[in-house]
Every structure is written in C-alpha cells, then in structure tokens.
Amino acid sequence: MDEREMKDAARETAEDKLITDAFQHLLDTYLASRHRKKVDIITKAFNFARQAHKGVRRLSGEPYIMHPIAVAQIACEEMGLGSTSICSALLHDVVEDTDYTVEDIENIFGPKIAQIVDGLTKISGGIFGERASAQAENFKKLLLTMSDDIRVILIKICDRLHNMRTLASQPANKQYKIAGETLYIYAPLANRLGLNKIKTELEDLSFRYEHPEEYAAIKSKLALTQEKRDELFASFTGPIREALDRMGIQYQIKARVKSPYSIWNKMQNKHVTFEEIYDILAVRIIFVPKERDQEINECFNIYVALSRIYKSHPDRLRDWLNHPKANGYQALHVTLMSKQGRWIEVQIRSDRMNEVAEQGFAAHWKYKEGGEYSEDEGELNDWLATIKEILDDPQPDAMDFLDSIKLNLFASEIFVFTPKGEIKTMPAGCTALDFAFQIHTFLGSHCIGAKVNHKLVPLSHKLSSGDQVEILTSKAQHVQPSWINFVSTAKARAKIQAILRRDDRELQKAGEELLTAWLKHNMMEMSSSVLDKLCDIHHVQKHENLFQSIGDRTIILGDNDLDALLGKHQKEATSSGWRRYVPFLHDKKSSPSEADKTAGQTLFTAEKNFNKRQPVVIGEETIGAYIFPGCCHPIPGDDILGYIDNQNHIEIHKRACPVASRLKSSYGNRILDAKWNMHKQLFFDAIIEIKGIDRKGMLHDLADVISDKMNINIHRITITSDEGIFYGNIEVRVHDRDEVRAIMDNLKVIDDLKEVQQII
C-alpha cells in the first residue's frame, strides 16, 4: 500500500468514526426521552441511508450522511419527536438524491414513514440546486402536505435549521437566497407552530449572513453590556427568589436576552440606537406546579406575590393562560418597575408551558399517554381550513398566495365577540372588514360599516381584544379596490382579490372590444407589436392592464396613439432610472458631458454562461450598466444584492429591501452577490427626517451643521411647524452611507432636535 492509499484509508477510518459517533449520540438522546424505545428501526434507517449516500459529500467536504443524522438529532433533541420522525429525518433525502423510490421505502419501513419521506421529497425541489422552482410554489406544496401529516413540516424545519447552521460553505449569492427564504417562510412558520427557540435561531442565522457587520456590532455590544445586565438581573430577582422560597415553590429563574435579530429589527422599525432599547433583558420564572390541574391558579399566585414587591404596569399584563395562542403558547406576562427605574417584563410559566413554548406542538405529544404521540392536529384545523379556502381559488401569482399566508403567520391573536356573545379569534391588527369576511363572504362583500361596542365605525376600523362587533350591510355596496389596503387576514384578502379579478375580467373584455373597434375604424388589426407599443405609450406593464384601463376609461384612445402606432413620433426609451439617485459626477473631477457619458451606458445583460457565483462589482465606470429600482434607493455603504430580471438585466437592491425579500423567496436562483467599489466621485440623494421643539434659529443651526461645518450640499429642505413642534425633511447629496451617518450624528447634538432618522 503506497502513501496515498494509506492516507485515504486513514481518512475513511476517521470519517467512519465521525459518522458512528454522531449516530450513537442520536441514539443516546432518543433513549433518554419519554418515547417508546424502537432502536431497531432507527438503526435500520441509519444503515439504509448511510449505504444510499455512500461516497457523496456536502459542499463543506464532510460525508453527506452527516446531514440526515444532524436533522434527525434536531428532530429528537430540539423538537422532542419520536422514532417515526427520526427514521423519516434519516431517510429524507434518499428518494430525491438516489435511485431508491418511495415504494422501496414503504416496503422496508412501512406506509407511515414512506408517506412522510414522500411529502418531504415533494416539497424539496432542490432547495440548493439550480433546478429550484419558485419557493412560493414549494410553500404551497408544503402547506398542502401538512394536512396529511404535520411531521412533514416539522422535519422540513429541522432540515432548514441544519442548512442554516452550515450555510458558511455556500457561495454568497446562495447565502442571500437561502437566508432571505428562511426569514420569509421558515422563521414565521416555526413561530406559528410555537417553535420559539428554533424561530429565534433561524432569524439570527439569516441576519448574520445577510448583514454580517450589523450582526457583529450587536453581538459585540451585547458582550460589552453583559456585566450591567447581570447586575440588574441579580438585584431584580433577589427579592423575587425570597418570596418564592417563602411560598415553598419549586422554580428556576432565567434571564431572557433579546436576540440580535430582534434588536436590529427594533432599531430599524423604531429608528432607535442599541443604547435606546430598554427591553433587551426580560425575566422568565419557570415553576413545577404542586398540582398539575392548578397550574393556572399558581401562575396568578406568583403574580400577586410579585406585585407586592414591584409596581406593575397596568397596560402591559398579557394573559395567555386562559386564552392560549393558536400555537398552544401559555404564560402570564407582567411588566414590573425595577429599583433602578427600568421596566422589566417577567414571564411566568409552568414547566409544561415552558416545554410547549420552546418545542411547540411537539411538546403536546410528549404528554400523551400510551404511545409515541398522537397525530391529532386539532389546534391547526382552523388555520388549515383558511389555507384550503385560498387554494380553492388559485391565484395567478404565487407570491400573492405567500404574502396572504405570511400575514397570518406573523399575526398574534385577539379575541372578538359577535352580537350574540360568541367569541372569535382574529389576528391582531385586523379590521371590521376582516371580521365581516371571517363571518361570511356575503357580509364582507356588502359591508358598509360596523358597530364596535355599539358605536358606529368605518370598515377600516382596527379591532381590539374584547370588542363586540356588529356588521352593517347594504345590497347596493360592492367590493372596492381600496379595500385591499386595510384588510390583514388571508381570508379577506383572498376573497377581495377573487371578486376584483372577476370584475377586472369583465372590464378587460369590454376594453378589448373597444380597442378592436378603434383599430378597425383606423384600418389596423390587433397584434402583439401594436399592444406592446400602446403599453409603452401609456406606461402599463401588461396587455391585460391596457385592456382594463381602456375598459374603465382611464385610457381614452386618440390621435397621439394613432401617430405613435404609425411611427410619426417614436422616441427611444431610456433606461437610466439610476440617474435620479446618481444625479451628477464630482464637479472637480468630471465635466457634465462625462456624467452624460456614464448615464448613457448600455445595460449589462447576463448571458447563459454568466457566472452567478461571482459578485457584481459596482464602480463609477459600471454603475450605469445596472438598474436601480425606486423601492429602496441603495447607495454606497449599503448591504446590497443583485437580481437578474426577465430581460436578463441586473437590478440592485438593498438586502433588507421588502421587494428583495420577495425576490429571494420566489426567484432564489436569480440572486447575485453585489459589492460597491466607489471612490467618492458620484453623488447620491439621501433624505433625513427630523423632528423637534420649534425655536428661533433652528433652521440656521441645521444649515450651519450640514453646509458650513460638513461642507455637504443641501439639495432641498422642508420644515412644517405645528403647536411648537416642527417636522422636516432634509434632502442632501452624499457620496456614501458613512456621510449620511456623520450628518445624523452631527445633527443629534443640536439643541431641541429630538429625532433624526434616515428615510432614503
């Protein structure tokens, strides 16, 4: 045996030990659980999968079988699932990646495991491969499969969690695609199923890959402020421990620190700095009830004891005990004022409630008697019914479907009463119109208003927990397009869209007839080129939109259309939309003619052999070759990505842009990594919003800081004053994001200027 063969043999021996140790760890975890012990079938599944994946490696270089073992480990250890799920996790890639079929799995492992593996194969679609179909379509399949066996979705979440934990081996464009898809689909789904720990980890991992610098900065600040938090936790919980000890309660108190993603999200949404977030620390009391059927009463007893020590916030008591969330979550949340003058949220839970909070539906199964666990999905039935209702009315755009489901995934619940006193669970933020559609489609489509707690309110009125709602209708009322802007439930949105689509089809038909008659009158025939030209003239995207606009008379055909069709006034379309955000070159370095030259660049086209793994580099010489849509206005310093559009041109978006989130989820294989390589030559527009106490000289101070001290060009400034408070926008021209931050930091020191935030 030569040296190379010896090295290969040694490597195989080391890898065999790695695989065997990982499987033994899985078995040890399973044997320590409360499940009925079925070691033989798990071992059989492991040996089968190991043989099927033999010789195959992941991108990281490790043997492929390590992935199914890791997925099974998550299912067992972090979700508390049993042998059927563990076997299905070990076998989840066999049918997709090898020559074995679902029938082979059924013959060897039985129909239940085969059904779950089949479900996982159907929704996979090659998540990491170029053959990946739009993830929204996969999500449809995934939800349909859920109704057969919820374990399909649970194992799929385990699979996604392990893929996220090992995402470092993927190229950057795949990282953005997978991270964006995870935030858009899997994290909210885990949240809806009550998998709180997994949801938090999925969010943090996505954040870490999409915004590595912000993630590192927040982790660093959390580490620097750890000592202060520990002191606050110790001083706050000391008196609580004494009280619980006197009551003879068996308990543990844990500090819950807000995750980096939650902190960043709050910084973005509330426009605050890390230092301005005061709820980073929360306290969790987990107790073992003296009697299992008295655990709700014991939660309230603990709350009473706490309120004797600290003053509680009257508006921040959340009772999830008597009204658990749809995902099974139960706890009592109370906010108390610490001796340091800080509000601190305390979550009171029994040990059972805590397991449900961490492991979701999986924890329910652990408390079922005499068997592995129940397949009962009772608490999901209402949600699944909504999904099936939406699927009954298929929509042309899968993203519409995903958006409507996402609305329900993210929502927390409120409780609303009918006039007869029946209680209805609705998502928080829902309106009277949502409630009307929830009761019946006829009520929703003919709704003219509502009475909430016996007071007349409009359709758009947002409901609160405890409201009693009576819907008012009129046969003369019809669904309006504007309704879509203030409904928040999937059911209402789907019904409104279905009715509007039906109305749109009628208008389109009328418009098509009008256009045909007009063309005939002018001795022309309808063709694709004629329709395309008319779409260009009237700035509409599709032929259907053109027909509809003609049908509802928003477009009136006339002489200008005729001239354009006959070629008398053709104008070359320009593709330099980016010029709005890159207005001109640095006047010291370039003349206006050079700026025009940059603006007139031909758009870059991604040919078939284009390497998607290479980052797109944007510099002064190449910026005109890319499209900068108006949705997010990226400027140098922003985290960005590229997207190959239907014309094979490349759009540049901020990674956090809502449009980019949709693109990552739906067209992940068109996402590219993108980087800036700018040298402070081009100027970009940025708008800073300010708010403060109105006083004499404020405008002078603002101009002094920006123009005189920083030598920044103020393009436009608007200020409005009302009852001693002023609001304003300052539009500046800057080279990059660092200059925007510097301006904001300088503005914050101006007296009476209370809020400074960036809009664009």
TrEMBL record:
GO terms for cellular component: plasma membrane. One of its GO terms (biological process) is guanosine tetraphosphate metabolic process. SUPFAM superfamilies: ACT-like, HD-domain/PDEase-like, Nucleotidyltransferase, TGS-like. Residues 412-473 form the TGS domain. Residues 64-164 form the HD domain. It comes from the Bacteria. Pathway: Purine metabolism. PANTHER family: GTP PYROPHOSPHOKINASE (PTHR21262:SF31), GUANOSINE-3',5'-BIS DIPHOSPHATE 3'-PYROPHOSPHOHYDROLASE (PTHR21262). NCBIfam families: spoT_relA (TIGR00691). Belongs to the relA/spoT family. In eubacteria ppGpp (guanosine 3'-diphosphate 5'-diphosphate) is a mediator of the stringent response that coordinates a variety of cellular activities in response to changes in nutritional abundance. This is RelA/SpoT family protein.
